[in-house]
Design the sequence.
């Protein structure tokens, strides 16, 4: 098996805030294989975007980080900003959510592409640049006749596809796409997902796809990482996780997704915690239907539940639960202690 | 959900139009003529029965929000009629409309923006009561506010009535917005994508609340969404909108089990399904949603419709689209060969059903005609060819004559009503 | 108050429970910028406020603090010398007309404060409602208003004040009120612009449409929904304009317009009278009124800029320290999964 192109080891990214550190990413380890699409899912505010940006070193001033992001044998967290900037594009790409703001309204699509190519590959000829750009656009379903047009002449969905083409024209090894279809409609979304699916077949680009739609994960990803309160609580092959989730959070998230086959509404009680002072031990314990006494006291171990799968939950290590802590968690008791 | 019980008609909409002027020049604005218009709502008719939930589903820009706002008179319809229990609302001056607002309420998409950041929930909820003079005295107002907060699940009410929107989570804000909408005891609530900005884990709770309220205080909903899955769960009937029109309307069973309109069929197929075992095969309509200021001739879905046939409204623009998508698939070499034969697309001229495609500069129109004939032979499945009656070379280009198109009204299909010529009675 | 995180209470209550946050009264709102500011900003704010407060106190208690009245030219039957050097009787000397400089400077603060308060009140009372109505109603009314205001705004402000003061003095009266009105004419367009701009953006907010959907009248919408959200930008420009208005007032006084010397002491007028003295080595007649102007303008500018830095989020610098990540405070690292390791 190939080596991962990108691997995160115990990555932590904390924002400084007036109330204390916001532990947006708190001890995440994750690998990205060449040509693989990994979905990153979780509720709002669980640190998905922070993780995605952190991977590319796009963090605000007041963010502290620790751990390791290794890419081609180097820790990206140690590299100087300037060098990192030059790697963005040819090595690391990013697709943002709002396509309108990322294209210069005064530049033709052709200029956008040729500029990007010339910056990163100065030796490229005009003809070659044009061919490469048109090829990338064609892959995204933009007709070659529209190469010379301005951004405002395209629809939102087309602009988003142009952005994707722009991120891919340099053939980066890793691309992070932060909710690339959230602002779009079902049909355009479906088109883009199909394009992303084609992509992993045709290029060797590894894609980290951030979304909160589990339907997208099931359709477009090879693997999925479920994030809750700054931690990846479960990861594994997309098919397995979406059919047989092993972590209570993944299961509850999946159950609360409304799909065509939904006959009964389900939701997760409570809300994701404030990441300045997340709950002790298992961060999901205040909301978890399976919570045991141990969950509020000791960190759950990370267990391999089946090949290629990990789940951070006491349910998979019942034999190691200290005696007397297996009984269901008394939530009222916990709340009292929380107030103290 | 259950089929609608035949009850009284609450709202009757007939041939409603809402047109917006865009890019109007000064002259156009003064004279009221010229300038382009967007037909955001284009001849929509439907009935809404008491206690029913009607879903308005469609892509972005299809006019769902505008239709919802027009029902409440928040945007002035250009023409048509909206009757609330038989009473005409269109054309009423703002002053006479205001008292009616008590019965017609709206919940907006973005809970973070729909509450005044400077008002506590107590003040925000008390205001509608004061406007319509529904309570006498502060004590009664306060009691009513508390009662409503409790109704939407914001308790302890003591705590929530004094909090500001910024103290609340997204779901709580949406509950507060719902509380404000129901406090005047409305008959109709238009909910404009009430859950689309909320997290998956919260959506179900808000929908649950809306179902609960419907039963407890007898509401009628218009549920605007682009999420078919939640519409399937929540609605009794669904209207599918495309470019300002209702293209299909029927009960949930009809729409989801036997969609009649090709557009509805495509939409349903496009929904991502979290359970991979149930994922449906995808055949997506090609192309983009067209420019609303220049809708296609005939059936406005025809440029994307896989089932389109000769009378669907083929026109000059389709010729361009066909060539472009062909070149996209063929690759650089064939593009380089074929492109020079065709002139500038901006000089593509069209009258009703006939187009003039200019030849490339210095190229023989005969060569262009030959190219078109070749494409027709290579891609006989391209639906556009069904609508091409004749092609002949002229000086400087090729003239293509199309079959005249028909703009389909809603036809009976035996199930849902669909605006598709496949169901046109002979 | 339930403190449980289970499904009692609102189902989506964030787990952070506690007493509801209370908005304090006016006092805590005023104190907020001082609490939120740091470093240079705080220094600017505090110094500016302190100096302004001193000037205000001087102005209010002028009759108690100043040795004489602004138009006193004698004490104990003895006339003051003209252009007299600082002495025991007149600590800052006397002017060319034989008035006490210290008294006139202190009373000058009183005049400045009176004119300022009136001018700010007038311009707020006119500029804010006009901006609100123009921005909310839009259409022809808005276009005409903008045209007028822009024309006023394009005028050099001192010239405008001069014209206004000249016209008013000739037709109505002179004095503090008239001067304040002349200054008001200059500053109304500024409030109008700022308020109209924020109204235009607030008008599109969903909560305004929600108020309309509720059945609220336009006047109610403006009062209850727009006003509170639009006036937030006003304190900053009000302080900055006040600084500017001091200069305008001095300019008018310097030119002999507005307040007459017999009505009140005015720094600009005193400066103008002192011009000739400067050449003759008489420094005290110009120094103190000049200092008064400089201090007042600087203090108000410091407050204004300081407020701007604190209240304007685009200028606000995050002065938050980068958090230190100590591994003792965190949970264990989760183990990675790759096919390689698992297989
Ligand atoms: N610049 C910042 N400074 C301080 N805190 C921040 C900053 N950016 C994000 N946060 C906080 O970090 C946490 C994680 O935010 P992040 O944007 O990564 O979440 P997310 O999972 O991407 O959410 P969403 O689905 O809403 O995009 C949140 O609690 C957020 O409030
Ligand atoms: N005030 C307006 N002025 C001009 N055009 C408008 C206005 N409001 C809406 N439109 C146009 O009317 C059409 C329908 O818009 P509408 O907001 O009703 O769509 P929608 O179906 O609600 O879309 P979405 O899913 O994005 O909310 C669009 O083309 C839009 O640009
Ligand atoms: S560790 Fe305990 S609380 Fe956490 S997810 Fe597993 S069972 Fe639930
Ligand atoms: S009328 Fe029916 S078949 Fe023809 S284009 Fe429209 S949807 Fe397709
Ligand atoms: Mg995010
Ligand atoms: Mg809408």
Sequence:
């Amino acid at each position: 098996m190939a080596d991962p192109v990108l691997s995160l080891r115990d990555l932590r990214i904390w924002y400084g805030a007036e109330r204390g550190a916001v532990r947006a990413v708190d001890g995440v380890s994750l690998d990205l294989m060449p040509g693989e699409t990994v979905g990153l899912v979780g509720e709002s505010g669980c640190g998905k975007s922070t993780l995605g940006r952190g991977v590319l070193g796009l963090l605000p001033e007041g963010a502290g980080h620790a751990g390791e992001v290794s890419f081609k044998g180097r820790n990206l967290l140690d590299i100087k900003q300037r060098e990192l900037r030059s790697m963005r594009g040819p090595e690391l790409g990013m697709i943002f959510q709002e396509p309108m703001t990322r294209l210069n309204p005064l530049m033709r699509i052709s200029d956008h592409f040729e500029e990007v190519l010339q910056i990163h590959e100065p030796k490229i000829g005009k003809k070659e640049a044009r061919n490469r750009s048109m090829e990338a656009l064609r892959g995204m379903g933009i007709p070659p006749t529209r190469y010379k047009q301005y951004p405002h002449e395209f629809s939102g969905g087309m602009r988003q596809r142009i952005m994707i083409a722009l991120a891919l024209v340099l053939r980066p090894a890793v691309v992070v796409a932060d909710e690339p279809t959230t602002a779009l409609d079902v049909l355009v979304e479906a088109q883009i997902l199909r394009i992303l699916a084609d992509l992993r077949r045709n290029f060797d680009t590894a894609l980290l796809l951030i979304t909160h739609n589990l339907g997208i994960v099931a359709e477009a990803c090879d693997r999925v990482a479920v994030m809750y309160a700054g931690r990846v609580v479960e990861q594994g092959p997309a098919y397995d996780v979406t059919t047989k989730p092993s972590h209570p959070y993944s299961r509850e998230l999946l159950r609360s997704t409304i799909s065509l086959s939904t006959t009964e509404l389900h939701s997760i009680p409570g809300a994701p915690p404030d990441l300045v002072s997340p709950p002790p031990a298992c961060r999901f314990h205040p909301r978890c239907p399976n919570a045991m006494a141990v969950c509020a006291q000791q960190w759950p171990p990370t267990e391999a539940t089946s090949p290629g799968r990990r789940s951070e939950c006491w349910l998979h290590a019942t034999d190691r639960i200290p005696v007397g802590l297996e009984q269901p968690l008394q939530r009222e008791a916990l709340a009292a202690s929380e107030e103290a | 959900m259950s089929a609608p019980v035949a009850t009284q008609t609450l709202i009757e909409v007939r041939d409603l139009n809402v047109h917006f002027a865009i890019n109007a020049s000064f002259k156009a604005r003064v004279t009221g003529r010229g300038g382009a218009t967007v037909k955001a709502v284009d001849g929509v008719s439907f009935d809404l029965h008491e206690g029913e939930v009607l879903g308005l589903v469609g892509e972005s820009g299809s006019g769902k929000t505008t239709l919802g706002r027009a029902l409440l008179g928040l945007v002035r319809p250009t023409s048509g009629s909206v009757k609330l229990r038989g009473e005409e609302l269109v054309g009423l001056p703002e002053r006479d409309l205001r008292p009616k607002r008590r019965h017609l309420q709206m919940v907006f998409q973005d809970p973070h923006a729909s509450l005044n950041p400077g008002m506590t929930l107590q003040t925000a909820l008390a205001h509608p009561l004061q406007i319509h003079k529904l309570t006498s005295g502060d004590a009664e107002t306060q009691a009513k506010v508390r009662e409503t907060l409790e109704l939407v699940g914001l308790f302890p009410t003591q705590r929530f009535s004094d909090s500001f929107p910024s103290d609340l989570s997204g779901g709580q804000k949406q509950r507060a917005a719902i509380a404000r909408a129901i406090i005047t005891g409305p008959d109709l609530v238009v909910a404009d994508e009430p859950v689309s900005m909320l997290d998956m884990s919260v959506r179900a709770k808000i929908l649950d609340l809306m179902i609960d309220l419907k039963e407890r205080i007898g509401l009628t909903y218009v549920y605007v969404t682009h999420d078919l899955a939640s519409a399937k769960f929540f609605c009794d009937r669904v209207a599918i909108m495309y470019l300002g029109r209702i293209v299909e309307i029927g009960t949930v069973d009809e729409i989801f089990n036997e969609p009649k309109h090709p557009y509805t069929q495509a939409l349903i197929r496009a929904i991502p399904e979290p359970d991979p075992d149930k994922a449906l095969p995808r055949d997506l309509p090609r192309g983009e949603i067209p420019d609303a200021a220049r809708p296609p001739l005939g059936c406005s879905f025809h440029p994307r419709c896989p089932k389109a046939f000769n009378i669907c409204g083929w026109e000059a623009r389709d010729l361009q689209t066909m060539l472009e998508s062909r070149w996209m698939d063929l690759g650089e070499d064939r593009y380089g060969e074929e492109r020079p034969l065709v002139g500038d697309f901006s000089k593509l001229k069209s009258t009703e059903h006939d187009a003039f495609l200019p030849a490339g500069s210095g190229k023989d129109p005969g060569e262009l005609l030959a190219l078109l004939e070749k494409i027709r032979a290579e891609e006989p499945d391209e639906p556009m060819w069904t609508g091409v009656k004749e092609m002949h070379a002229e000086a400087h280009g090729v003239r293509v004559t199309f079959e005249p198109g028909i703009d389909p009204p809603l036809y009976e299909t035996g199930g849902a009503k669909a605006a598709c010529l496949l169901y046109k009675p002979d | 108050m339930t403190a449980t995180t289970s499904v009692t209470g609102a189902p989506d209550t964030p787990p952070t429970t506690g007493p509801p946050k209370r908005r304090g009264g006016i006092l805590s709102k005023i104190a907020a910028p001082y609490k939120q500011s740091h470093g240079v900003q705080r220094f600017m704010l505090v110094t500016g406020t302190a100096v302004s407060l001193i000037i205000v106190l001087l102005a209010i208690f002028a009759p108690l603090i100043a040795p004489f009245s602004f138009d006193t030219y004698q004490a104990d039957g003895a006339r003051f010398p003209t252009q007299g050097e600082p002495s025991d009787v007149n600590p800052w000397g006397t002017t060319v007309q034989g008035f006490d400089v210290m008294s006139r400077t202190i009373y000058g603060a009183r005049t400045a404060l009176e004119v300022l308060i009136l001018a700010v009140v007038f311009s707020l009372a006119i500029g804010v409602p006009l901006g609100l109505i123009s921005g909310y109603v839009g259409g022809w009314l808005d276009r005409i208003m903008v045209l007028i205001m822009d024309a006023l705004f394009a005028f050099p402000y001192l010239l405008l004040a001069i014209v206004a003061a000249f016209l008013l003095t000739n037709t109505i009266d002179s004095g503090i009120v008239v001067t304040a009105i002349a200054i008001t004419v200059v500053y109304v367009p500024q409030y109008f612009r700022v308020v109209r701009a924020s109204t235009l953006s607030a008008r599109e907010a969903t909560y305004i449409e929600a108020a309309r959907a509720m059945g609220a009248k336009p006047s109610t919408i403006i009062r209850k929904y727009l006003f509170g959200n639009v006036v937030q930008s006003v304190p900053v420009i009000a302080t900055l304009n006040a600084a500017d208005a001091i200069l305008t007032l001095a300019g008018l006084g310097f030119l002999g317009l507005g307040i007459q010397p017999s009505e009140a002491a005015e720094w600009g007028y005193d400066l103008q009278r002192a011009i000739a003295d400067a050449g003759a080595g008489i420094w005290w007649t110009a120094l103190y009124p000049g200092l008064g102007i400089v201090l007042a303008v600087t203090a108000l500018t410091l407050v204004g800029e300081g407020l701007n830095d604190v209240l304007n989020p685009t200028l606000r610098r995050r002065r938050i320290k980068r958090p230190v990540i100590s591994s003792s405070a965190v949970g264990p690292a989760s183990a990675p999964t790759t096919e390689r390791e698992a297989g």
